[in-house]
Amino acid sequence: MPSVKAAVLTAFRHPLEIREYPSLGEAGAGEALVRVEMAGICGTDVHLWLGQLAIPLPVIMGHETVGRIERLGAGLKRDWRGNPLSVGDRVTWASSVVCGECYYCRLKKQPTRCVSRKAYGISYCASDAPHLRGGYAEQIHLRAGTAIFRIPDSIPSESVVGAGCALVTSIHGLERAPVEWGDVVVVQGTGPVGLAALALAKHAGAARVIAIGGPPHRLELARNFGADATIDVAAIPDAADRRRAVLEETGPFGADYVVECVGHPAAVNEGIDLCRDGARYLVLGQYADAGNISFNPHTITRKQLQLIGSWGFEPRHVDRALTLLEGARFKELFAAEVTHKFALTEANLALETVRQWQSGKSVLIPDIGGREAAHPGA
Ligand SMILES: [Zn+2]
Ligand SMILES: [Zn+2]
To answer: Are residues 16 and 152 in the same domain?
Structure first.
């Protein structure tokens, strides 16, 4: 039986191992087998690698994936949008599958908090059959109930993987706390989530967006994504100095809306300091549990703040992301974010480029084959 190569996280903080699994010849009812074309390396993968989230090792990471359908199980005839689905179609999918029946799914309409939600590339142990449940592999097995999306031919795979989980996560966040037309917005962080939030804020009608982040190549990306001003955290390492620099851009009262896309707990106090009274503060970047901070809740009352959290995304946010990526601006911006391409066997190098903020977005291309992997400076 042919085998499938995968880059596997077997122990935290240890290099991923290339392992082989039996190729799955058939798909069961409602399931799909997909040949992976491109898999994004998300910042979350670095957190997973560092052991900052409880996951069942060994795990095949990769939750931002594009591939082609190899097999469709009985009954799977249409994608999540209702388009006909055939073998050979290029697809992506919502990385999580929810139960649809629990307290959060059914009664409270918060399916991202489903009590039995499981995510490809995160929550599946690669020791358990059918093993192939992550994007860092030549083939992936999609279980019944996965929200699969046929990718319109006009959207390159680079745009979909470049947007990755960051765009859908930001769409969800900004749905919970909409940017209002004319808002002055501060985005903390210029990683993929920060860039996506920035693009969406501009798209939603923000008058001015100020991005705080780094290193310089990411600030340049932020300007491409629509930032009217950028603040380099390395150039202004002190939070009080940084606040003064931001207020010069927002006006003396602060921002109407601040989005946290950093992931370091300390960013939250700084973000609250950048809010004008009555502002909205969306905390989007604290996906991993990176610890506690000391915080004075009096500020929330006094400043009449709205604090909003948002976790993951739903299939309908993938639908919106694809619609946005059909537009020329989003298509080109997110495709251009993909700066580093690696073969599957170079997964450790790829992960390292993300950990060290060297790339716009790093991707794995399992069948990169004769083509030269492209990773400038990595
Ligand atoms: Zn992610
Ligand atoms: Zn549920």
So the answer is: yes
Say how many Å lie between the CA of residue 56 and the centre of ligand 2. 20
Which ligand gives the minimal distance to the CA of 63? 1
How far apart are the C-alpha atoms of 346 and 327, rounded to whole Å?
32
Angle at 294 between CA 289 and CA 299, to 5 degrees: 115
151 and 59 in a common domain: yes
d(CA 356, CA 351): 9
User: What is the number of the ligand closest to the CA of 110?
Assistant: 2
If asked whether residues 296 and 346 sit together in one domain, one would say no
Among all bound ligands, the one having the nearest atom to the CA of 135 is 1
Residue 19 CA to residue 4 CA, distance in Å, equals 8
Rounded distance from Cα 171 to ligand 1 centre (Å): 14
In a domain, 371, yes or no: no
Nearby residues of 69 by Cβ (< 8 Å), 6 or more positions away: 32, 33, 34, 85, 86, 87, 88, 89, 91
182-214 pLDDT tens trace? 999 999 999 999 999 999 999 999 999 999 999
Considering the domain architecture, whether residues 317 and 305 belong to the same structural domain is answered as no
356 and 237 within one domain: no
In a domain? residue 69 = yes
Answer whether residue 268 shows pLDDT above 80: yes
Residue 195 sits in a domain whose CATH number is 3.40.50.720
Q: Which of these three, 271, 289, 309, is where a domain ends?
A: 309
Distance (angstroms) between ligand 1 centre and the Cα of 42 equals 5
Q: Which residues, chain by chain, have CB under 5 Å from ion ligand 2?
A: 98-99, 102, 105, 114
Global pTM value: 0.95
Ligand nearest to the CA of 193: 1
Per-residue pLDDT at 1: 64
Q: Which domain holds residue 75?
A: 3-163+313-364
